[in-house]
Structure formats: C-alpha cells, structure tokens
## 1
Amino acid sequence: MEAIVLGDGSKKYQEIIQILKDAGAKLDIPDFNGTSPLQHAKQRGFKEIVKILTSKI
C-alpha cells in the first residue's frame, strides 16, 4: 500500500511492488477507507503497477 500511496509509480516503485508480489505479500489489503492498493494505483494512473497487481504470474 505505501509503495503505491507514497510512491510516484516510477520504475523503482514498480520494482518494489514486483518484489513484494514475488515474495508472497498480500497485495489486496485495503486501507482504513476500504480502498485497495489496486484501486489506488488505478486512481493515480500507475498503469505498470496495475499490470503487476493484476497479473496472475
């Protein structure tokens, strides 16, 4: 969540999200408002992060 909300969607943050995903981190835990990391990424226009979050592999 923090890598998306506090990040800028750049390559560095894309790599962080990918590392977390590869390590088995739960990437669907919503914030206190019920907004998921995927929703935050979409709202911010982070297309590459959306791809990472939605890819099955």
## 2
Amino acid sequence: MAAPGLEERALFAEGVRAVLGGWAALQLAVAQGFGGPQGPEKAAWLVGAVQDYFTQNAGLGEEEVEEFLAEVMDNEFDTAVEDGSLRQVSRELVTLFARASRGDAGGVGEALGALARRGPALRAALAAARPGGDPAPPHAAPPHAAPPREGEGDDGSEEEEEEEEEEEAMECGTPPPPPDGWTLVRRRRR
C-alpha cells in the first residue's frame, strides 16, 4: 500500500484522536495520574506515536498494534490493560487506517460518529473515578463500549447473553466480562 497523502493522514489523525480519546483505560490512567504529572502530555504524544507507527510500518495487523499499545501503556502509564479493550482499540485503529488510506472520508466519518456516541458514558465514568466524584473501585475502568441502559433490549434473555459471552470469552482465551460492568485495570509494580 502506498504511503497515505496529506488528506488521508489528516483523516487518520482525526480518527486516532477519537479512538484514544474514547479509550477508557487510557483516559482513566491519565485521570488517576498513572503516567505521573506528564500524563496528559504522554496521551497527546501517543496520538502522534500511533500515527507514526502506522505510516512507518506497512501492513500492520491488529496483534502488532495491540502489542505496541500494551507496551506504551506499561512503560508510560505503569498500567497493564487486561479488560479486552486493547484488542478493540487495535481493531478500530487498523480499520480507520485502511479507510483513511483509501480516502474513504465517509467510512471514517461513520466510525467517528460511533465513537462520539460513546463519549457521554466515558465522561460519566471518568467523573465518578476522579477524587470528589462517586467512589469507584481502585484502578477500575468501565468497559470500552458503554453498556446498554437499564430496560433497553431487555427481553428476559440476560442470563443467556451472559452465558454466551462467557463461552465466547473462554474460546478466545480472555476472561468473561464481570457482571457489574467494571473491569479491573491493575497498575504494574516495578
């Protein structure tokens, strides 16, 4: 694939900002000071680092992006992300890069719209995690995608859905999502 042009890079940059801005694990690490006092600067740096990583490495797969992000979260934010969001964020970035490289502004815009719809749930979770907000479990982050509101899609098959999720998680080798909707994000000790 040829190197993306100026317009394509701008599309991808916008997508990267949106994906990382909506990544609960990263935003919580910054809000809780896991990256030290330079946490916000590190998060801003990460946007550029992800863009460079994609443009300098042709044909990146989700696994490579996931490893890169895990390493950055560990090294820069002292955080081991174990909530499954690394895979989702990596998939979103790979998809956005492919769309932006093709100049598919409509596809990128559609993806950005979906990310924007998750924003209110993320802001509420971050507010609850900040000092002075409602207490949240230590180092806990809400899942990457907002859970459905109570009563939405409630057709009495909640237990079946949970069992299916657990079975899928077991097949993929990832732990099932916790019933309370919160995922523990542990800070690594050095």
